């Protein structure tokens, strides 16, 4: 009888052990069953530091804003971010620009 858990990605029941890892043959996902499971969204800044809701970040490069007459400049401080699902995983408001979505790879935590 199979006592292994289903795959966390595709929920397949055909999981097998490969050394210390569990492997799903249907989606090729590998994971460590003994590792801590992170709750909620995980976003890392450009330096690999974990971000959380309410953090303050700064931009690490100039970013072009579609439809805006000027760019967001490097060093712009963004307060009170909110993490969301998707490619642009930071929701925020920037003074002078309004509501924006940013990628976490273009910011660093203050």
Brief synopsis:
It contains no helices and 11 strands.
Structural class: mainly beta
Radius of gyration, in Å, reads 19 Å
**Helix count, per DSSP?**
0
Spatial order of strands in the largest sheet? 1-2-3
Can you give a write-up of this model?
It holds the Pfam family YjdM. Belongs to the YjdM family. This is Protein YjdM. Residues 3-32 form the Protein YjdM N-terminal domain. InterPro entries: YjdM, YjdM_C, YjdM_N. The protein has 110 residues and is mostly beta strands. It has 2 domains: 1-35, N-terminal domain of TfIIb; 56-109, Roll (SH3 type barrels), CATH 2.30.30. It is 0% helix and 29% strand. The protein contains no helices and 11 strands. It has a 3-stranded antiparallel beta sheet, with no helix packed on it. The termini are far apart. The relative contact order is 0.18.
Topology readout:
Layout: E1 16-18, E2 21-23, E3 30-31, E4 43-44, E5 50-51, E6 57-59, E7 77-78, E8 82-83, E9 90-94, E10 98-102, E11 107-109
List the keywords.
0% helix; 110 residues; YjdM_C; N-terminal domain of TfIIb; mainly beta; 11 strands; three-stranded antiparallel β-sheet; 2 domains; Protein YjdM; YjdM; YjdM_N; elongated; SH3 type barrels
């Amino acid at each position: 009888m199979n006592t292994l858990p289903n795959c966390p990605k595709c929920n397949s029941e055909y999981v097998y052990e490969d050394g210390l890892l569990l492997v799903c043959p249907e989606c090729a996902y590998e994971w460590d069953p003994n590792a801590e499971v992170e709750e909620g969204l995980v976003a890392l800044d450009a330096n690999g530091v974990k971000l959380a809701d309410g953090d303050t970040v700064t931009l690490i490069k100039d970013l072009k804003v579609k439809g805006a007459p000027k760019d967001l400049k490097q060093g712009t401080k963004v307060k009170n971010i909110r993490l969301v699902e998707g490619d642009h995983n930071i929701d925020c408001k920037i003074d002078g620009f309004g509501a924006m979505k940013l990628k976490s790879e273009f910011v660093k935590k203050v």
